[in-house]
Every structure is written in C-alpha cells, then in structure tokens.
Design brief:
Layout: E1 11-12, H1 33-57, E2 61-68, H2 74-81, E3 90-94, H3 100-103, H4 109-113, E4 121-125, H5 134-137, H6 158-177, E5 180-188, H7 191-203, H8 213-219, H9 222-236, E6 243-247, H10 251-268, H11 278-293
Parallel strand pairs: 2-4, 2-5, 3-4, 5-6
Antiparallel strand pairs: 1-6
Helix pairs in contact: 1-10, 2-10
Length: 295
C-alpha cells in the first residue's frame, strides 16, 4: 500500500511570511508508526532507482540541505533515508566552525567547494545558512571574517543581513540555473522534545559522547534561534530553492516526510537513461554474437 502525505504542508511558500509556531513539531500525518516505517522502506527503493537514472543522465546534481536545532535528528535522517543509495553517487559534508583558510575567503567559498558533481547527490549537514543563523544569534562570529567596515558588532546592522540573504539567494539561483536541484529542510523539533533527547544522552553512557556543555548554552538562546530561523526561511525560500519545515518530534515520521519530498522531486525531473546512437545499437547484436561464441 502506497501512503501519500501532503508534502506541500511543510513548504515555506515564497513571499508568504511564516512563523515557526505555525508548524506542528509533533505531526505524524495521521499514520501508524509501523505503516510509516513500511512506507519509508518502499520510498527508499524508489530513491535508489531515481539515483541510478540521475547518475546515468549526468545532466543534473541534487543538493540536499539539513538545518536544525541540536538533537533534532539530522544524522539519523541522513543515515536512514540515504541508506539505500549507492555510495559512489552520494556525498555528505558536515560543516563545523570555519578554519583559518576558510576565513580567508568569502563565506560561501567552502560550500561551493563541497557541491556535488553532475549525476550525484550531495548532502550538507549544516550549510551556508549557519552564516545567517548561528552568526545572527552570535554576531561576534562575523568579526572573524575580517570584513571591511565591520570591525565591531555594533556595525553589523540590518543592511548587513539583507545583503547576506541576497548573496545566498543569488548563489542558489546561479546553482539552479546550472542544473543543481536544491532541497532545503529545517527539522523542527520542540523545546520539550529536545530536553528529552538531551536527558537521554546524559543518562545513557553509550550516548554521552553526543552531549556537549555547549548544547545547554545554545538551548538558553532558543527564542533567538527561532527568530533567526523565521527570518532566514522567509528571506530565502524561493521557487528555485524552497524550504521545508519538517516536524521532528517523531523521528520515524521525519524520515518518511523527507524521503517522500526527495522522491517526488526526483520523479518530477523526468530524467531518462541515455540512448545510444543508432550505429552503436546495431553493433550490440554483433558483440552479443561474439560473446556467445566464446568457449
């Protein structure tokens, strides 16, 4: 049985202002968990087929971006949804604090370097959006970029952020004009669910390594982050590169919703396997006969 969900429910429509509070973090599509897991297995099979055609056609690439608060489940989504893909056609980058070389370039440089080649799927676990999210909450981080005219935090004004959003929109428009399909997911976990997951990491010795004191410090800035996400999504959800706000309190449903959106997008591309020139097709019969004659 195929389960269809209204994936447009999660879409941040370009030009329409959203509030994070408008999105239900606990939504499960009115599905039973076991039904959802079964559907995820089916969709992963579809993804594998679409990936094969994407690779063979060699005309487009797919960039999938994941952003979220801590413990929202980005790693789990990547591991489960992409588990059926051929590793040769898929690459994952997890972006941390920029290093010295990266700070010597513009903020998009390291992300441009990590883009997938034609025929491949690239996944960015955190992305260039950190520069308008964590940097918006911690504007002092901008000073490390050593930008002209921005030598102190009080000089980082609204015009600065407007220009940065414009840079991102232009960057993504350039990519889509050159065959890159961009899908952007914000995994929307509730503050209560994050608390439960943090406690689980503290109480389970096998998960202690996942917890950091910095997680608690950032949690205290929850409202600031929600405001930063609202503005970033409103400013950068475009027809070319839309944002999806995915409910993340139920991990199994998060994985299903993301996989369905990716599958629907790949299907809509209507990619085809390359067709051989007539002469090469005619030559295949001869090659077949030659192989069959081998002892």
């Amino acid at each position: 049985m195929t389960v269809k969900t209204n994936t447009d429910k999660y879409l941040v429509k370009p030009g329409k202002k959203i509030k994070m509070a408008d999105f239900d973090t606990d939504y499960n599509g009115h599905l039973d968990k076991e039904v959802g897991k079964s559907e995820l297995d089916r969709v992963k099979g579809e993804l594998a087929k679409y990936q094969e055609v994407l690779y063979a056609a060699d005309s487009r690439s797919v960039l999938i971006i994941f952003q979220a608060m801590d413990a929202a489940g980005k790693d789990g989504v990547i591991a489960h949804v992409m588990s059926g893909l051929n590793p040769q056609g898929c690459q994952v980058y997890s972006f941390k604090t920029p290093n010295a070389e990266e700070y010597d370039h513009d903020f998009l440089w390291r992300h441009y370097k990590a883009l997938p080649e034609r025929g491949r799927i690239g996944i960015h676990n955190r992305s260039h959006y950190e520069n308008v999210l964590v940097c918006k909450v911690h504007p002092e981080y901008i000073l490390s970029e050593r930008l002209p005219n921005y030598t102190s935090v009080d000089k980082i004004d609204e015009d600065f952020w407007k220009n940065r959003y414009e840079s991102i929109r232009n960057f993504e428009r350039h990519l889509t004009n050159n065959g890159v399909v961009i899908l952007k997911f914000f995994l929307h976990v509730s503050k209560d669910e994050q608390k439960k997951r943090f406690l689980d990491r503290i109480e389970d010795p096998a998960k202690n390594w996942k917890f950091s004191s910095g997680d608690i410090k950032e949690r205290a800035l929850w409202d600031d982050y929600m405001k930063a996400y609202e503005e970033a999504l409103n400013e950068t959800s475009t027809d070319e590169a839309p944002w999806y706000v995915i409910p993340a309190d139920k991990k199994w449903y998060t994985r299903l919703a993301v996989s369905q959106i990716i599958a629907e997008k790949l299907e809509s591309l209507d990619l085809q396997f390359p067709k051989l020139p007539k002469a090469e097709v005619e030559a295949l019969a001869g090659y077949k006969e030659q192989l069959l004659k081998e002892k």
